[in-house]
Amino acid sequence: MNNKNELKYLKGGRSFYITLIVCMIVFLGAITILILAFNLLIMQHDEKLSGEICTLVSEKMSNSLSILTDSTQEVSSVLSAQDFDSPEEIYEVLKDYEGTKIISVGFIDEDDKLYMSETEEKEFEKWNLLDTAKKADPVSISAPYRSTRIGQPVITLFTDFEYGNSRHGYMFMTYLFSSLQEVAVTQSLTNDIEIWLMDAKSANIIQCVGSDMHASGSWANAYLAMQNINSENKADYDLWYYKMVTGVPSAAVSYKIEDTFYSQFCSSIEHMPGWYVVVRIPSSALSATMKTFRNYVIIFILVLLNIVFILVSLMYISWKRESRMLSQLSINDPLTGVLNRRAFELAAEKMISDSKEAAIMFFDIDYFKQVNDTFGHDTGDKLLVAFSNALKKNFSEIGLVSRYGGDEFVVLAHMDSKEQITELLKQAKDDVHAIKLGDDKEGESETKDFLISFSAGVASYPQDASSLDELQKCADSALYTVKERGRNDYLWYSPSFEE
Predict the structure, then answer these.
(1) What DSSP state is assigned to residue 452?
(2) Phi, psi at residue 61, to the nearest 5°?
(3) Three-state SS letters, 337-364
(4) What's the pLDDT score for residue 71?
């Protein structure tokens, strides 16, 4: 077994790259959570923003309507103080109040007779404005309607009026609706934000602000405008609309049309019962700043991750190089390069647990002491190196080769069959016999002709023993028997060796 696989058994098969992949998965999971959290914050931000804008616009519109109401009442009070005798006189004076924003004025006497132009009379009949006038206590406001005369949305304010001998009538002033639209325009911070006025009863909407500036003041119907809303958001939108119908002061909803998310908020208008200010913000509006910030954060984190990955990789390469050097010193026999005893025992425990069948072999070089005594320790060292090479040649691909000490070696190999191991032992025996201690130079004939051999005891796992310690004892017993029988051979363990 090569050095890489030996280290695998010694280190338990742990991999830096597996650890790095796990860290990457955790990091990407964290990035995903961060993006989801950002998206949630963006949605909450849009809902809060639309609510704030809507509340502000509804308050501004209510204030504007209050100003118009107060203005209408002031005009009524001034005229009442002049003690008119007839509605005709009142109407003649009222005509002078028409201006830029007040497009028409008129009077209704106690007999419901209308003092106004023929066009205005038709509009009164079309929009049932006489009914609105009778609700004045002291003021009433009509729903927005499109003026036939000027083709623009208007609203009409009515106020009680007393004249000549406590007679009772109604004075009215019609204002351009654009005066209220301007309030919405000043609150819109981006062209993407849409602001509508919506009649909860009919679902009719008047656009005050939107991306299409030419559509300002146009009428539409909310049912038709929301036909493309995604099916999964339809129930939420219906619930939002139901809240308006039932008179809830304010409500929020989020939905998606095609690929665009919208946050929508409504707020009731105090002086226009049944009418709401509706603010709609697409995800591409004010959230764009937050999305840009989010993207910058993600890019920064990814760049930082790449830098950290490169640094960690460089550190790992350096550590691996140093670790390999230290491993060679700490787990390998310095002379032969095979595993030392301590490293073998650590790796063998792991290998045994991973093997279905294995064989352990104890080797002794025959008459090694005689080689040292006769030819010197340098020659003995050369023999140890040559002997370990013969073992590595035959067993390193399927097992661990170790020098236990002196001339003792041990091999633990994966085993397909006893015949397989026996064939390898036979080949190892031939290879060891072929080892020459010297060459053909003069004076080295004795070393050249010295026959090198070994004795080996072999035990199989799990047939002979189920633990490494017991397996070693079996192999040692077989080795002892070989030595008793004259050496230069190998034997498989048999229980009879213990008798």
Answers:
(1) P
(2) -65, -40
(3) CCECHHHHHHHHHHHHHHCCCEEEEEEE
(4) 84
At 35, list the tokens: 């993006």
Strands 167-176 and 194-199: unpaired
Query: What pTM was estimated for this model as a whole?
Result: 0.47
Q: In whole angstroms, what is the distance from residue 429 CA to residue 475 CA?
A: 17
Cα dist from 94 to 78, 79, 162, 302, whole Å: 11, 9, 15, 72
| Alpha-carbon gap, residue 333 to 403, rounded angstroms | 7
437 contact partners, CB below 8 Å, separation of at least 6: 371, 375, 379, 382, 383, 447, 448, 450, 452
Q: Measuring CA to CA, which residue among 146, 154, 187 is closest to residue 277?
A: 187
> Which amino acid, one-letter code, is at 430?
D
Q: What is the DSSP string of 6-22?
A: HHHHHHTT--HHHHHHH
CA distances from 103 to 95, 154, 176, 460 (A): 10, 9, 7, 111
397: number of Cβ within 10 Å: 13
| Ordered DSSP codes for 198-210 | EETTT-EEEEEE-
Residue 108 is encoded by which pair of tokens? 């209704």
pLDDT over 50 (residue 416) = yes
CA pair distance 453, 187, nearest whole angstrom: 101
> Which of the residue ranges 147-156, 175-184, 346-355 would you say has the lowest mean pLDDT?
175-184
- Cα 253 to Cα 272: distance, rounded to the nearest angstrom: 22
Pair 452, 414: CB distance under 8 Å: no
